[in-house]
Amino acid sequence: MRSLAGIWVLPNCSKVSSFNGRLISSSFALRFGSDSPNYVVLKSSPVAAAASVSGSGAQYSGSGGLLDVQTKQKKKKEGIAGIDQDELVEDPKLLADPDSCFCEFSGVEIHHKVYEAQLKVHETESVSSETKTVGLAMILLHGFGASVFSWKRVMKPLAEAIGSKVLAFDRPAFGLTSRGNSVRHLSSGNGESKPVNPYSMAFSVLATLYFIDFLAAEKAIIVGHSAGSLVAVESYFEAPERVAALILVAPAIFAPITTQKVVKGSQPGTNNQTEEDGSNSVDNGNPFVQFSKVLSKFARFISQAILGLVKGMAVMLNSLYKKFLSALLRSAFAMMLVRMAINKFGIAAVRNAWYDSKKVTDEDISGYTKPLRTKGWDKALVEYTAAMLTDTSSESKPPLAKRLRDIKCPVLIVTGDTDRIVPSWNAERLSKAIPGSCFEVIKRCGHLPHEEKVDEFVSVVKKFLQTAFDDSPQEQLQVIV
């Protein structure tokens, strides 16, 4: 091969050859004299000119570029949890199902679904008594990373069980509910508006109560799964008169350790008090004792002053800490970590939530990953996490562990015996912390009883409602006193 005035001249071949992706035919051979071999004349092209030639071991950069393109296409195809992040939709409504509904609450478009019991005319006479007497609306609250999709198997059966409407909605940051700014203004009863973070617990509670009004119901049965159980309980404390019953499924609520209080007899206490009074009367005339009392009061005053100073510093440091944490969680680095976590553990977490991961279908995976097709899903998840970790509204309330014993409505706690995410022993301990609550364990079941064991779950709920709202003798659940 040699170059003549910018033209590459190659020995002629009888076969069609390939040169950097271009076909070369022997029909273009030129003859240079009778004894000269046939040559192919190939004019330089942009592709050929870009090739890097180095002696006999010529390397072409074009092949490296092809590999780079293939690698980029592979990464693009993989995306986040199998979802291509270059083809996200602006409006979540484009991903809605035929039975999806949307309503606006405080500037947020909330995705929800409603099912109502459909009873035929000839079936009305044979309807069981518990369906007739319950007649209460039901609100379903999903857990972290889930959506309305997680309730799709039980919404219709539950509607038939209660003889009323069942509504499930996507809390902000999840499902197909709109993503937006982290501040909304809600009007209070006196006409004033106050800023509320739509990703906060307070917003989820207010949205839950809003949907009770949306169903034109005076009261409703609130069902919460996993982290949704906390929203259900807080909704009760916000408006106990609007909650007919609570059903907590695999509740992600840390259960306090209950201990029995030892009540001392009145007589020993009286004796001790008498002895103390006697000793005080003896010591009143001792000047050293009086001086020690003055020192004790002075030391107590100093310690209280120091304690108040420390508390003030702790409040200031706590405020600075939360501001720093909020800024850190909203950084680009945190966004990257969220995307990496969802990509690596998202689908695995869904499978791990089931007792038998082999029963998880492609439809289940698609339903859980659909929200990843909406633009801003990662930012919304970061905002939700920041709102949960920097929430200050609970500081003005007693700890939840102490408020649990104040729940007066009927409570059912359901868990799977093989829950790998929230262990069943925590659910049992929680049932002991709520007086009069009912506790039920579903065998061979994981973290999602309402998805994995639909018939058993609906049966447990029906028995509970029958016990709570009907006086007819039926099979009773295990009641924790």
Q: Number of helix segments? A: 15
Total beta strand runs: 17
**Helix-strand category:** alpha/beta
**Overall 3D geometry?**
globular
Instruction: Report the biggest beta sheet as strand number plus sense, adding barrel if it closes.
Output: 9 strands, mixed
Average pLDDT reading: 76
Rounded to an integer, what's the Rg over CA atoms? 35 Å
Residue share in helix? 40-55%
Please give the order of strands in the largest beta sheet. 7-8-10-9-13-14-15-16-17
Strand residue content: 15-25%
- Oligomer status: single chain
- Which consecutive residue ranges, at least 5 long each, have pLDDT under 50? 1-64, 121-131, 259-282, 472-481
Distance N terminus to C terminus?
Answer: 96 Å
